[in-house]
Task: inverse folding
């Protein structure tokens, strides 16, 4: 974790705020995005001048753009600078899963009333500004606090294996790679799924090490989907891939994803997806990452369906499809 430079001596503070780089589009809802964790109450508000950037995202695809301010009203006063930075660093992960890309925070200012207690100069790392559409959209804004609070609280007490943190890194990498290599994006997304699926089966479903080792990943992926009670077919919006699989009677979406990834990594030509089939498979894989992540943190609210490639905005928004 990259830490900023402490400017001044640490003293007690009652409020803190930082600049957010490449943060999410709040669609300029006046209250902004807010949530609560054990650290306190967070509020993210976008700069008015960020509107032009969000309306022309592709023009600034690889830029690092200050998009807003994140403020924290802490539950506990008197924490030091390192504790404060951890709070903001976790909040950045919440915002990163929201955008699908790495969000940076920095230039922290801690205050006590009208007085500045101390400042922290410098920023964490971030990805490019433009990211593919994901689960977060306009219709999800009003329920954002439920997701963000659950995600942040999980990070505060995350197991030592850090399943959410590591899967998020591959999820981000997949989104970032999409514009240059669809195959690489699929491999990264698959790695994110491996982390989440193994964690769910081992820690939640009670699978033994031997059981995990002797099953193919497609079977483990299918088992994890059944365990979390996924209520829909992952391929329901992948008509081209469904048509391709008709010639393979033993393959469903989980098997197609695993064989697609293996064909890329091992240069195996026995099963190949091309063009729109690869796009559908990648979207399905990232959607599954989102579904499993929501299960892990306990979120069951609204999400946009990134698998859809046609229709009107908002038509694909619904509750996380878990029974």
Result:
């Amino acid at each position: 974790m990259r830490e900023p430079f402490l400017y001044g001596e640490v003293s007690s503070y009652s409020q803190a705020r930082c600049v957010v780089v490449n943060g999410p589009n709040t669609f300029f809802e006046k209250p902004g995005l807010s949530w609560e964790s054990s650290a306190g109450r967070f509020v993210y508000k976008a700069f008015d001048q960020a509107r032009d950037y969000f309306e022309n995202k592709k023009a600034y695809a690889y830029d690092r753009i200050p998009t807003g301010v994140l403020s924290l009203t802490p539950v506990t006063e008197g924490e030091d600078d390192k504790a404060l930075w951890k709070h903001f660093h976790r909040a950045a992960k919440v915002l990163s899963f929201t955008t699908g890309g790495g969000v940076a925070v920095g230039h922290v200012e801690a205050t006590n009333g009208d007085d500045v207690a101390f400042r922290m100069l410098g920023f964490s790392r971030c990805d490019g500004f433009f990211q593919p559409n994901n689960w977060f959209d306009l219709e999800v804004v009003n329920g954002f606090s439920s997701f963000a609070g659950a995600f942040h609280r999980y990070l505060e007490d995350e197991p030592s294996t850090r399943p959410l943190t590591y899967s998020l890194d591959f999820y981000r990498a997949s989104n970032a790679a999409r514009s240059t290599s669809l195959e690489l994006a699929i491999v990264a997304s698959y790695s994110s799924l491996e982390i989440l699926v193994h964690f769910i089966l081992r820690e939640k479903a009670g699978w033994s090490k031997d059981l995990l080792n002797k099953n193919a990943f497609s079977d483990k992926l299918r088992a994890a989907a059944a365990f979390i009670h996924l209520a829909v077919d992952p391929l329901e919006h992948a008509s081209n891939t469904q048509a391709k699989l008709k010639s393979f009677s033993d393959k469903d979406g989980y098997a197609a994803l695993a064989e697609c990834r293996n064909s890329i990594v091992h240069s195996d030509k026995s099963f190949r997806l091309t063009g729109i089939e690869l796009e559908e498979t990648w979207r399905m894989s990232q959607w599954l990452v989102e579904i499993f992540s929501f299960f892990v943190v306990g979120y069951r609210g609204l999400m946009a369906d990134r698998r859809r490639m046609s229709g009107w905005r908002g038509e694909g928004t619904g509750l996380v499809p878990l029974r």
Observations:
- The radius of gyration is 21 Å.
- Residues 5-133 form one domain.
- Residues 76 and 312 are 45 Å apart (CA to CA).
- The longest strand covers residues 66-74.
